[in-house]
Amino acid sequence: MLQYDLVVVGGGPAGMAAALQAKEEGVAKIVILERAESLGGILEQCIHTGFGLHYFGEELSGPEYAGRFIREVQQTDIDVMCDTMVLDISDANVVTAVNKTQGLMQIRATAVVLAMGCRERPRGALSIAGTRPSGIMTAGTAQKYVNIDGYMPGKKVVILGSGDIGLIMARRMTLEGAEVKVVCELMPYSSGLQRNIVQCLEDFNIPLRLSCTVVETHGKERLEGVTIADVDERLQPIPGTEQYIPCDTLMLSVGLIPENELSKGVGVPLDNVTKGPVVDEYRETLHPGIFACGNVLQVHDLVDYVTEESKIAGKGAANYIFGKKKGGAYAATKGVNGVRYIVPQRVNVRGGEKVKLYFRVGQVYRNAKVTVTCNGQTLLSRKRPKLAPGEMENVTLTEEQLAAMNEGDEIVVGIEE
Predict the structure, then answer these.
(1) Second label for 158, Cα 20 to 30 Å away, from 138, 280, 391, 413?
(2) What is the Cα–Cα distance from 132 to 143, expressed in whole angstroms?
(3) Can you list the domains of the chain with their CATH numbers?
């Protein structure tokens, strides 16, 4: 059995940032297990720019952003096993994995960081009538076809869902010579970043239809067209609003699901909203010694925030390994009045450090206030010109504010219009 201080599951931007931070904190034996053939994760196929504006202060492509961390990892003695599939994590933090070189192996770890990322919601999760011809795929699959494999998925495209990857692929397909007929969004607002709506749709005159969905696909061997329809406030198609659009490709950008099969296997409790683990301010799950960061914890809109969060997890793992984890009293976080979720879900109020709370709202708000209260006392009230579900928000609690709290208190974040 192999022995490591820290095992990081996933070699994308989250896993690399966590491993590097743990190494900086003094952890000696670290291994990154990555199921792909190389480090970098999903960034390898994201050749567009827009990465690194917050973290590096400059605009990079996905491969450039990942490349900086890959080079940092290579300059350390962190072990990397690519083309390696993690099968199981035991209660005693023993990681079972397999690859072509070592075969089946077991690794005993003092701490484990989960950084497996997320997967796209497929067509099977949607209620779309019709046949199953070729030409229907997730936007991420289409992105891999175009940017990695050099294949053109189609010439006349309809995109369902206005998540960031769907918006980016609308622009990408247009630049490759395809005609993007329309981007349909079920909700009355886009779930993507405002900058992507402007740069990927408006700059290319690609129409965005809100409160609209695909109700049927047509074609036998290859997709020939789709029927779209408007939806009501209950998100049900409105009879009489159907419209047929001829196309040979339907791209789905209908949400991301954190990859938490390993988490569930070891008994890590998950949040019902984020679908990621319940964690504290150092991103430690309720299973001692197991930490989570990046998109496996919550779906981020910026990789810069993934890096920031993963460094916190790396430091938390190092503290656990060295026995520096502070015991204390935990207060729960709770979202109300439009706040869908908060990460972390609990905070050690005796930690002696400020804590940043990340959250998302459930609808679009304009000129609203973000308030943070505890025990009826307002800790923070900040006016925001716009809040949208597609953009993650955050608030910071000071050491003094946390020190005034007690075990079992509730930190409540809400929106006031």
Answers:
(1) 391
(2) 21
(3) 1-119+257-325 (3.50.50.60), 122-254 (3.50.50.60), 328-417 (2.60.40)
Tokens 């930490």 locate to: 291
DSSP 332: E
For the record, the structure tokens of 44 come out as 């390898």
Token code pair at residue 80: 């990397």
3-class SS at 139?
helix
Strands 225-230 and 212-218: antiparallel
pLDDT digits (tens), the chain, 417 positions: 999 999 999 999 999 999 999 999 999 999 999 999 999 999 999 999 999 999 999 999 999 999 999 999 999 999 999 999 999 999 999 999 999 999 999 999 999 999 999 999 988 888 899 888 999 999 999 999 999 999 999 999 999 999 999 999 999 999 999 999 999 999 999 988 899 999 999 999 999 999 999 999 999 999 999 999 999 999 999 999 999 999 999 999 998 999 999 999 999 999 999 999 999 999 999 999 999 999 999 999 899 999 999 999 999 999 999 998 887 799 999 999 999 999 999 999 988 899 999 999 999 999 999 999 999 899 999 999 999 998 999 999 999 999 999 999 999 999 998
DSSP for 27-85, please give it.
Answer: ---EEEE-SSSSTTGGGGG--SEEESTTTTSS-EEHHHHHHHHHHHHHTS--EEE-S-E
Q: pTM of the prediction?
A: 0.94
Q: What DSSP assignment string belongs to 360-405? A: EESS-EEEEEEEEEETTEEEEEEEEEEE-TTS-EEEEE-HHHHHT-
CA distance 273 to 82: 31
- Closest Cα to residue 339, out of 357, 326, 321, 351? 357
CA distance 238 to 217: 17
Alpha-carbon distance of 253 to 382, in angstroms, equals 32
Label residue 337 left, alpha or beta by phi (over 0 means left) and psi (-120 to 50 means alpha). Answer: left
DSSP string, 196-256: HIIIIIGGGT--EEESEEEEEEE-SSB--EEEEEEB-TTSPBPTT--EEEE-SEEEE---E
Q: State how far the Cα of 297 lies from the Cα of 307, in Å rounded to an integer.
A: 13
Cite the DSSP H helix spans in 132-217. Answer: 139-144, 164-175, 194-196
- Please tell me the distance from the alpha carbon of residue 11 to that of residue 80, in angstroms, as a whole number: 8
